[in-house]
Amino acid sequence: MSEPDPRPARLLVEYLPMLERTLQGEGVLDLACGSGRNGIFLVRHNIPVIFADINSAVLERISGRLADSACGTSYWQVDFERPGCRPLADKEFDAIMVFNYLHRPLIPAIRNSVRPGGLLLYETFTSRQATLGKPSNPDYLLQSGELHDLFKDWDILHYFEGTDSEPQRYYANLVARKPM
């Protein structure tokens, strides 16, 4: 298995200045952070990040990479898909970022956990990705226009749905501000 790409998502790099202006002390949740590449990018820009993932070994590796960082970084081992669990209840963040992850039952909680005026950065695969291989389970793939529709009542600052050649993939991404 190849190593994950260490570069942050282009969407995150492009919207970093806006994200920096949005911060009010609640931090950024890197939901289902995986290798942590996006959260690490933010930490290196002195933005406090809560790395959240089910995999404790991944969180330990990220912690080891950021051992000398002192910008309010924290680590949260959590199963966002456990039935009956409401891990985001009563939590609020300046921004939530989600990359390459989709669990539809969690969407209402994500909506509730971004503070008013806060940002959501979301990017994941669309159903056309199945033509290329993995992921191919429709439970983890967005339908055409679905991501936009889930946040159509927010201020959508950016929306894209299509293909990319580096790496080859079909995906949608969105940057949206929660109404005040």
What can you see in these coordinates?
The protein is α/β, with parallel strands linked by helices. 23% of the residues lie in helices and 29% in strands. The protein contains 6 helices and 7 strands; from the N terminus they run ααβαβαββαβαββ. A 7-stranded mixed β-sheet has the order 3-2-1-4-5-7-6. The mean pLDDT is 92.
Provide key terms for this protein.
single chain, 180 residues, alpha/beta, Rossmann fold, 7-stranded mixed beta sheet, 7 strands, 29% strand
CATH architecture: 3-Layer(aba) Sandwich
Q: What integer is the average pLDDT? A: 92
Helix content: 10-25%
Please state the structural category.
alpha/beta
The fold-level CATH name is Rossmann fold
Low-confidence stretches: none
Task: State the fourth-level CATH superfamily.
Answer: Vaccinia Virus protein VP39
How are the strands of the biggest sheet laid out side by side? 3-2-1-4-5-7-6
What is the CATH class? Answer: Alpha Beta
Computed over alpha carbons, the radius of gyration is: 15 Å
Note the total helix count: 6
Tally of DSSP β-strands? 7
How far do the termini sit from each other? Answer: 44 Å
Our estimate of the beta-strand percent is: 25-35%
Number of domains as seen in the coordinates: 1
The succession of helices and strands, N to C, reads HHEHEHEEHEHEE
